[in-house]
Amino acid sequence: MEIFKMAEGTTMIIKVSGRVDTTTAPELDKTIKGSLENTAELILDFENLDYISSAGLRVVLSAQKAMNQQGGKMKVTNVNEIVKEVFDITGFADILNIE
């Protein structure tokens, strides 16, 4: 997994590529949590994400809850068919803003 993050004003964009699984999810969680201060909008760009496990889903849900608590917005962008199917099956498609 590779993570690239970029701030644009109060918007934080985090691009994730590769696989988010039990081994890599803690690194993504740490990156997201360390990026939320003064962030009004969080964008998770999954254009190059090949796979997401339940551990990765927990990280995404945790990020959504954190943004809700601080009154911010979060969206997930560029989701491929494989990851979108996981979001659909798990019901995450109903609770996340996916573009």
Number of strands: 4
The topology string of helices and strands comes to EEHEHEHH
CATH class call: Alpha Beta
Distance between the termini: 22 Å
Count of individual domains: 1
- List low-pLDDT spans: none
Q: How many helical elements?
A: 4
- Spatial order of strands in the largest sheet: 1-2-3-4
Q: Architecture, according to CATH? A: 2-Layer Sandwich
Largest sheet: 4 strands, mixed
Rough outline? globular
As a percent range, the share of strand residues is 25-35%
Fraction of helical residues: 25-40%
- Radius of gyration (CA) equals 12 Å
Give short descriptive properties of this protein.
Transcription Regulator spoIIAA; alpha/beta; four-stranded mixed sheet; 99 residues; 39% helix
What's the structural blueprint in terms of helices and strands?
Elements: E1 2-8, E2 11-20, H1 25-33, E3 41-52, H2 54-69, E4 73-77, H3 81-90, H4 92-95
Parallel strand pairs: 2-3, 3-4
Antiparallel strand pairs: 1-2
